[in-house]
Design a protein that fits this description.
The chain is built from four helices and no strands. The protein is an all-alpha fold. The chain has one domain. Helix 1 crosses helix 2 and helix 2 runs antiparallel to helix 4.
């Protein structure tokens, strides 16, 4: 009785383990990749909200401090333009970092397999 249960449970455990190993690449490049892309999209969206880039672009022609003469409008336009440019550069850097994280996600398993093959042979 003990041997029968041991072998039946052992075979079930081994089969489940092999199934999980075989399912891993499908999950990594399927569901896992979709989750990673969504999380990176929300990350970039959150960074844009933190920088307030949309607010700066929306108010680029609104004069600062209610100063409606030509000098006030010109100064506020150029100050906001500089802010928009620098904040766009910062957001672009965050975007490049997010793309780098996605590239690492995509290329990590093949690189790991290649490294293991070189270690074994």
């Amino acid at each position: 009785m003990l041997k029968t249960n041991f072998f039946s449970y052992f075979s079930i455990i081994i089969l489940e383990f092999l199934a999980k190993i075989l399912y891993f690449p499908l999950w990594w490049y399927g569901v896992g990749l979709i989750k990673k892309v969504k999380s990176l999209f929300y990350f970039i969206k959150a960074k844009e909200e933190e920088l307030g880039l949309g607010v700066w672009v929306k108010n680029i022609l609104v004069p600062m401090y209610g100063q409606r003469d030509f000098a006030g409008r010109a100064i506020s336009f150029f100050i906001r333009l500089i802010q928009v440019i620098f904040r766009s550069i910062i957001l672009f850097v965050w975007f490049i970092l997010a793309l780098s994280a996605l590239a690492i996600w995509l290329f990590f398993p093949p690189i790991l397999v290649i490294a293991l093959i070189f270690q074994i042979f």
